[in-house]
């Protein structure tokens, strides 16, 4: 039939395959144009951590449930066991090292740098004084300082350097080491007695004395340089030495000012005076009882003039006539008794005296040393 101009033209039908392609695209476009829910600004920590999932048994729709992931590393028990083994190995190595250096110290008395370094950390003892240990490090400090002092003294006097490897040098080393042990014993006993008598030295006292030394010996730099040249000391070493010196001095002051000791000395002096007044010979009593250096000569002072004796002792002598004996006089040395033998017109006086010391600290301390229980771990 002939085609009419006003008849609409038929659109050919699209193939079935093309329809199937277009429909999903339309749906996808529609899905894309749907308003989307706003995404959280920060996702949860749980969502950020990946988890392993497994299909739940018996669920036919494929729903997946989260299950803990199987551990692939060592268990906590394994790590503890490993730590114990490593610790045991470390302890064993330390024991071997300690034993090795112990052999070097006690067997060979080694003074090499490695031994010195270890001795600064590990307090190997060289002796024990009334239960108080003296370290090998302190011992080496004293020995080294004295060796350097001998070498420096030889240099200052233009003498040959000391050869500590020679026969005479070895004897000198033995003396130095024995002196070091004796000094350390004294230091240990001073520290013990200071504890007993509540004697303490503050940092301020130490620093004050060091500052005085700076002023006396040309300043800090000069003093430290000199000490390093002579003894090998640094500032810390100087602090250590000054502290010990102050502790010993403060202990002496405390002991000599003890009222109980003072009372005993006074009582002894009064007893001696009583014997003299009872007829005992002054010279004989001086030889027996006096603690002065002239006791063997009967306490003879010879002739003295004003200013040669302490003021109160001088005044007592001036008040006596020849043949007279004074009362007990308290002086800076202790308690004294004076007998005037002769007086001259020029004011000089010849007298005898008896001294009973309040306490002779050196004698007292020596007695403490003799009584101290000492165990030595090395021989020199």
SS content category: alpha+beta
Give the termini distance in whole angstroms: 142 Å
Report the β-strand fraction as a percent range: 5-15%
Overall structural domain count: 3
Main beta-sheet annotation:
4 strands, antiparallel
Q: Summarize model confidence as the mean pLDDT.
A: 83
Description:
With 380 residues, the chain is of the alpha+beta class. It has 3 domains: 77-122; 125-256, Triger factor/SurA peptide-binding fold; 259-358, Chitinase A, domain 3, CATH 3.10.50.40. The chain is built from 13 helices and 9 strands. It has helices spanning 16-33, 45-48, 76-107, 113-119, 136-156, 167-196, 203-216, 220-230, 235-256, 259-277, 282-289, 311-319, 361-371; strands at 53-55, 64-66, 125-129, 132-135, 300-304, 329-331, 334-343, 349-357, 374-376. The strands form 3 sheets. The protein has a 4-stranded antiparallel sheet. A 3-stranded antiparallel sheet has the order 4-3-9. A two-stranded antiparallel sheet has the order 1-2. Strand 6 and strand 7 (334-343) form a beta hairpin.
């Amino acid at each position: 039939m002939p085609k009419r101009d006003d008849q609409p033209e038929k659109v050919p039908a699209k193939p079935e395959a093309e329809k199937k392609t277009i429909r999903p695209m339309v749906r996808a476009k529609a899905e894309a144009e749907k308003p989307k829910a706003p995404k959280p600004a920060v996702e949860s920590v749980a969502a950020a951590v990946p988890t392993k999932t497994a299909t739940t048994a018996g669920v036919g729709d494929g729903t997946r449930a989260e299950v803990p992931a199987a551990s692939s590393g060592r268990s906590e028990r394994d790590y503890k066991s490993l730590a114990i083994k490593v610790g045991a190995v470390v302890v064993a190595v330390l024991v071997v090292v300690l034993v090795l250096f112990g052999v070097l110290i006690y067997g060979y008395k080694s003074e090499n740098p490695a031994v010195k370094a270890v001795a600064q950390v590990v307090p190997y003892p060289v002796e024990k004084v009334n239960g108080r240990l003296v370290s090998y490090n302190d011992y080496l400090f004293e020995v080294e300082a004295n060796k350097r002092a001998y070498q420096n003294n030889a240099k200052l006097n233009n003498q040959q350097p000391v050869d500590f490897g020679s026969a005479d040098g070895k004897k000198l080393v033995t003396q130095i080491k024995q002196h070091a042990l004796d000094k350390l014993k004294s230091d240990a006993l001073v520290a013990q007695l200071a504890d007993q008598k509540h004697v303490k030295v503050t940092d301020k006292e130490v620093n004050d004395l060091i500052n005085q030394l700076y002023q006396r010996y040309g300043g800090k730099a000069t003093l430290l340089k000199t000490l390093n040249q002579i003894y090998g000391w640094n500032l810390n070493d100087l602090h250590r030495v000054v502290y010990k010196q102050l502790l010993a001095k403060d202990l002496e002051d405390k002991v000599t000012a003890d009222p109980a000791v003072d009372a005993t000395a006074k009582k002894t002096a009064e007893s001696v005076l009583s014997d003299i007044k009872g007829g005992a010979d002054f010279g004989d009593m001086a030889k027996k009882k006096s603690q002065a250096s002239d006791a063997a000569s009967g306490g003879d002072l010879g002739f003295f003039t004003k200013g040669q004796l302490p003021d109160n002792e001088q005044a007592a002598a001036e008040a006596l006539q020849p043949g007279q004996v004074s009362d007990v006089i308290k002086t800076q040395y202790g308690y004294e008794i004076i007998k005037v033998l002769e007086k001259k017109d020029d004011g000089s006086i010849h007298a005898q005296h008896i001294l009973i010391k309040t306490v002779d600290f050196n004698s007292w301390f020596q007695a403490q040393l003799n009584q101290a229980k000492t165990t030595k771990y090395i021989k020199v």
